[in-house]
């Protein structure tokens, strides 16, 4: 889906109507191959019927491209300031054509300025003029602008997610804080019925870290999309893994080993055992069998839901285009569980992988 979307967008003919959405799509998909001629855009603003939306979005794409990909040197700063200043100036020109009977037109200008300020703030961070903790504090959900229409926040949160994904590569010690903030953005998307936005942001988070909390939110997104089987399998599997990695389960396994040692010692001295010791041996064996059964059932349940999750992921990849980024999850589960043997009515894991269209592996 990602590959097809890029190819489709790049096939657009050059015209203002399509460029209005083209640069937003390229940024969301993380493609920075497009070259923006800022001088040409400046000339367009001098024409009587110039389209401010196209010019501003093109310049914002250029600013993001510099801030996320270039080395923060002196040339980088000079290039970025040219694009930023022109984008700010063109945003201010929108004020000349505002419809003062409708406050929504004012929000559009304010939203553009917020987007540009976020880019400028991240550039200040990369040049060492501020710290990431301060930036994360300013980008908290409770400090978002009070836009009545969520579409303005959707653009702002999507851009911040792109920036935060990039920041995680340069500031690994802040990965947990970045993931927590991005998950809050995902929940905002779900609350406002922006399921596609929420899914896109979850996939961005998974490039940084795949914690149990991330899995929980991922299952919420799947549920919101109507994929309840995938949601339940993801959620149940995450809970089982969480339990198996807990101190309680670890102590249970150690307890079984200790009970085995005690039982073995008692059995060796069986002929010399007192009545109380024989009772202790019997109790120990029964308790050990109970604990072993629970541990065995937990592991079997994990394998069952792992099998179910892989099956649904691969069937989804085979039959539709809604969850193509799940290919990363399939490969991740495969590598994380090397001893696991997948079974699906006689089909091997390799067979099901081969039924998935080959172009869906392009992102790996």
Characterize the structure shown.
This protein has 364 residues and is mainly α. Among the domains are: 1-130, no CATH class; 243-361, no CATH class. The protein is 72% helix and 0% strand. It is built from 16 helices and no strands. It has helices spanning 2-10, 16-28, 38-44, 52-69, 74-93, 104-126, 132-138, 150-170, 175-191, 195-206, 212-224, 228-244, 247-268, 275-319, 326-336, 349-355. The longest helix has 45 residues, at 275-319. The radius of gyration is 28 Å and the shape is elongated. The mean pLDDT is 79.
User: How many beta-strand runs?
Assistant: 0
Which class do the helix and strand fractions yield? mainly alpha
- Please give the share of residues in helix: over 70%
Number of helices: 16
Q: Which residue ranges are poorly predicted, with pLDDT under 50 across at least 5 consecutive positions?
A: none
What distance lies between the first and last C-alpha atoms, to the nearest angstrom?
13 Å
Mean pLDDT metric:
79
Q: Identify the overall geometry.
A: elongated
The portion of residues forming beta strands comes to: under 5%
SSE pattern: HHHHHHHHHHHHHHHH
Major beta sheet, specifics? none
Radius of gyration computed on alpha carbons: 28 Å
Q: Top keywords for this entry?
A:
364 residues; mainly alpha; 16 helices; 72% helix; 0% strand
Write the layout of secondary structure elements.
Layout: H1 2-10, H2 16-28, H3 38-44, H4 52-69, H5 74-93, H6 104-126, H7 132-138, H8 150-170, H9 175-191, H10 195-206, H11 212-224, H12 228-244, H13 247-268, H14 275-319, H15 326-336, H16 349-355
Helix pairs in contact: 2-4, 3-4, 4-5, 4-6, 5-6, 6-8, 8-9, 8-10, 9-10, 9-11, 10-11, 11-12, 12-14, 13-14, 14-15
């Amino acid at each position: 889906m990602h590959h097809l979307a890029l190819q489709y967008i790049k096939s657009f003919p050059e015209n203002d109507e399509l460029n209005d959405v083209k640069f937003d799509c390229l940024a969301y998909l993380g493609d920075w191959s497009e070259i923006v001629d800022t001088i040409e855009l400046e000339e367009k603003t001098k024409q009587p019927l110039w389209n401010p939306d196209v010019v501003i979005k093109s310049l914002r794409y250029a600013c993001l491209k510099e801030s996320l990909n270039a080395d923060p040197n002196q040339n980088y700063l000079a290039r970025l300031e040219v694009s930023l200043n022109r984008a700010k100036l063109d945003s201010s020109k929108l004020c000349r054509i505002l419809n003062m009977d409708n406050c929504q037109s004012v929000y559009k200008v304010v939203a553009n300025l917020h987007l540009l300020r976020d880019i400028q703030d991240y550039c200040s961070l990369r040049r060492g003029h501020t710290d990431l903790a301060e930036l994360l504090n300013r980008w908290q959900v409770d400090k978002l602008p009070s836009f009545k229409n969520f579409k303005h926040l959707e653009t702002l949160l999507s851009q911040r997610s792109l920036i935060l994904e990039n920041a995680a590569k340069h500031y690994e010690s802040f990965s947990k804080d970045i993931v927590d903030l991005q998950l809050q953005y995902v929940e905002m998307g779900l609350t406002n019925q922006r399921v596609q936005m929420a899914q896109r942001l979850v996939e961005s988070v998974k490039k940084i870290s795949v914690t149990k909390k991330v899995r929980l939110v991922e299952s919420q997104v799947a549920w919101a999309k109507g994929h309840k089987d995938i949601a339940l399998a993801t959620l149940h599997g995450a809970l089982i893994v969480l339990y198996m990695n807990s101190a309680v389960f670890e102590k249970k396994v150690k307890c079984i080993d200790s009970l085995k040692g005690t039982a073995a010692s008692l059995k060796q001295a069986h002929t010399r055992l007192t009545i109380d010791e024989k009772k202790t041996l019997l109790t120990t064996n029964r308790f050990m069998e109970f604990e072993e059964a629970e541990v065995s059932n937990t592991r079997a349940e994990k394998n069952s839901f792992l099998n179910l999750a892989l099956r649904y992921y691969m069937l989804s990849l085979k039959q539709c285009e809604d969850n193509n980024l799940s290919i990363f999850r399939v490969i991740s589960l495969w590598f994380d569980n090397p001893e696991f043997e997948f079974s699906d009515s006689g089909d091997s894991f390799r067979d099901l992988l081969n039924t998935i269209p080959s172009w869906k592996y392009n992102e790996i």
